[in-house]
Amino acid sequence: MKYLAFPKKKQQRVASEVFKATRRDFLKAGSALAGGFVLGVSLFSCDSKGNKKGSFAPNVYLKISDSGQVIIIAHRSEMGQGIRTSLPLVVADELGADWGKVQIVQAEGDEKKYGNQNTDGSFSIRMFYKPMREAGAVAKQLLIQVAAKRWDVPVSECETESSQVIHKASGRKIGFGELAGEAAELPVPAAKDIKLKSREQFSIIGRATSIIDLPAITSGQAVFGIDAAVEGMKVAVIKRCPVVGGSVKSFTDEKTRAVPGVLQVVSIKGAGLPATLNKPLAGVAVIAENTWAAIKGRDLLEVNWDLGPNASYDSNQQIKELVEKVSGGEGTPRRSRGDFKSASANAKKIIERTYIAPHLAHATMEPPCALAVVKDGFCEIWACTQNPQGARDVVAEVLGFAVEKVKVNVTLLGGGFGRKSKPDFIVEAAMLAKQTGLPIKVQWTREDDIHHDYFHALSVQHVIATIDKDNKLSGWNHHIAYPSISATSDISVMQPDDGEMMLGAVDFPYDVPAIRIETHDAKTQLRVGWLRSVRNIPQVFAIATMLDEIAEARGMDPVSHALDLLGADRNITFNEEIVKGTYPNYGEDIANYPWETRRMKAVIERVAKESEWGKKLPKGYGLGFAAHKSFLTYVACVVQVTVDASGKISIPHVHYAVDCGTAVNIDRVKSQFEGGAQFAASFALKSAITFKSGRVEQNNFDGYEIIRMPESPKEIHVHIIDSEDKPTGVGEPPVPPFAPALCNAVYAATGKRVYQLPIKLNG
Amino acid sequence: MANYSISVNGKQHTVEALEDMPLLWVLRDLIGLKGTKFGCGVAQCGACTVHLNDTAVRSCSVPVSAVGENKITTIEGLSEHGDHPLQLAWQKYLVPQCGYCQTGQIMNAAALLKSNPKPSEDEIEQTMAGNLCRCGTYNRIKAAILTASSGSKS
């Protein structure tokens, strides 16, 4: 048994410093920023006293050209969350820029220039909100200094608005462009002298702002990974080994080569085992003049595989084995409080349930694809990637190039959800481009995507709850088993890692005297990765449906029950009860981002009020409740269902209350919650991946179903807690509480408890 | 391989293609119109929706040899300046998230409004059932269609 530590990525950023970019920095930042007045922001990791650690490395850039054009670099990947809009608008607001005329330039992948760019974990806004504000504020202060000197008025009498400095008393105005040259010569103010706007002064932050790519998207002009092209580009479609860890023994390609347009057939050596989080699977690539010829050629390939040790993998069998394991005895303790054995011995009532959830595929609407050109010892990539730096590093490693010899351009992503954090498909393109000397676009088909994803792994959990003679919840014992993400990199890993346990298991916030959380072995025979909110999905499914059952057993209303169990207002740290290691808190110091029961109770009370919790409903209707904090954002959810005689579930209303601190772009917070509910409705009602003989049994959207408009949740009401607190992410937090709230609503409507996803009411 | 002359957005294009090459790949790879997206290849997701005359079809499942004299319209040809009532309604409701499926959604909705200018909510839901959106923009899509239609029976 082994589990790996988490997180491995750098997330601890608590200080920043604005600097004026030198000529050298311009060169590093590329041609988009050459000349003009350019500001960077540097982020530092700090020790507990706030002293800088590590070296000075500029990252985010803002430019004001002599013509007054404000250019803001978007260094995070856009996949529908709106980040290409929401971070630049923060800069623009502080600066006083004319938002309608700001130009957004997408950054290539380069850690030295832009800092961490891995767009996952719902932390772009959390990490970059303050530095972006500071960049805008510094630029504004310098521009005002130049104007005030010109007019011979105090700086305190000047303001910025619509990309102009304005002297209200005299009505004078000067455009940024006329000031930029001189502003560039001034020293950057010390951190303590940077004046940020007060909340009342915001003109864009906290409102509903349209995404910058909207007209391009609705007119079909937006460029996704699939749309990237260069002169002479060829298309590769790959037949990959159906079993993870297998390899190519031999192949026959006569029929393939007979397809007009097919140019070459090339074998790809895969990572083998461990499958890794960044390298390709073994396969045979068909390179053709166009996508259709490549697909046809690929389908005609005959490959003789060595399927390797996972060829007997059967996911239903694994579920059966794990059910035995989690309900059959002690596992590895991960969190321990009080004495569960004694709680159990003294219990008046014991509730014991097993929860099962299947493997899931991301199924981004845009299947993975990447374009690579390798020429004169340099590799240039265009790809729909959440993680351009990770892609750059692994491409350099695989090609044997220095990192500086690889450039990764980021397109729009047609969905990400964690799938496009893994650069395996980009490595395929780079390897093929190097080997053939041709510009190669690798195109995954939907079948490729469903068969060869980095899956969200199945899970089996067993929860034992004890209720004492005073009708108190006296003990909570949660047993957990699933294939770990860490095992994709290290096949000896048999149990969930600390990062996975942080996601809704060990951070069980309820004030129960005895808590015991244990994990059990589960073998990993597929590629496992993170999918929107990751392990929060199954863990909160088990916890929040069990709490509903406990509330009923105790004769309490589920909402009052949750408020009661959260206990007194307090900040929870978990650390002293974690058996090994510390609570990761999504990479943030828990002193800066405490777990506050007060805020959780506030979202619960809000959602209860807005959803008219407790109201009488007609027969066949039900309301269900669940609440969960993930990615540092507090969420409570009430789902209303109707269930007809045939067992068909409809979802007329969903209410969310969310506390994400300062909501930067109200509309995109709402859209993430609307989408989060639909995403969760898919796996709650429809989706499942199964393996038989090591192979995925589903092929396309007919077998792997996601929710369609007629059955989708209808009215999704998002209630945002008004807050000036530090902003936290909203991409993932809507997802975890939805499925258990839905299951609890189904119970309220039908009297049937749900222990397995997706929900099947009949049979 | 054969030569096919097809009408796309009012313009005649001659392409050399295998007879079974789906219209989707003809549009994207041979003609260079990339607003039409690939999602599944088997008419399950609607990302590749275009109009064949006035009817919405899944271009991934229409072989080029079947197009004949029929007129094809893609998102690029739906309106001259991206200002079809549906495109404007899409902007009003800030419908897209990632945006990938949206051109197919708009084309499907445009065909619906041509045949049924005042669809009910239920008619919208049934017609749009073939268009998947993984980001979950369905409710805004419906609101946009209702607004763009000249009124709804609801």
Automatic annotation (TrEMBL), chain A:
It comes from the Bacteria. The keyword Oxidoreductase applies. The keyword Oxidoreductase applies. It comes from Dyadobacter fermentans. Its EC number is 1.3.99.16. This is Isoquinoline 1-oxidoreductase beta subunit. PANTHER family: ALDEHYDE DEHYDROGENASE (PTHR47495), BLR6219 PROTEIN (PTHR47495:SF3). Residues 219-309 form the Aldehyde oxidase/xanthine dehydrogenase a/b hammerhead domain. The lineage of its organism: Bacteria, Pseudomonadati, Bacteroidota, Cytophagia, Cytophagales. Keywords: Oxidoreductase. GO terms for molecular function: isoquinoline 1-oxidoreductase activity. InterPro entries: Ald_Oxase/Xan_DH_a/b, AldOxase/xan_DH_MoCoBD1, AldOxase/xan_DH_MoCoBD2, AldOxase/xan_DH_Mopterin-bd_sf, N-heterocyclic_Hydroxylase, OxRdtase_Mopterin-bd_su_IorB. Pfam families: MoCoBD_1, MoCoBD_2.
From TrEMBL, chain B:
It is an enzyme of class 1 (oxidoreductase). It comes from Dyadobacter fermentans. This is Isoquinoline 1-oxidoreductase alpha subunit. Keywords: 2Fe-2S, Iron, Iron-sulfur, Metal-binding, Oxidoreductase. The keyword Nucleus does not apply. Residues 2-78 form the 2Fe-2S ferredoxin-type domain. Its EC number is 1.3.99.16. GO terms for molecular function: isoquinoline 1-oxidoreductase activity. CDD domains: fer2. Pfam families: Fer2, Fer2_2. InterPro entries: 2Fe-2S-bd, 2Fe-2S-bd_dom_sf, 2Fe-2S_ferredoxin-like_sf, 2Fe-2S_ferredoxin-type, 2Fe2S_fd_BS, Beta-grasp_dom_sf, Diverse_Oxidoreductases.
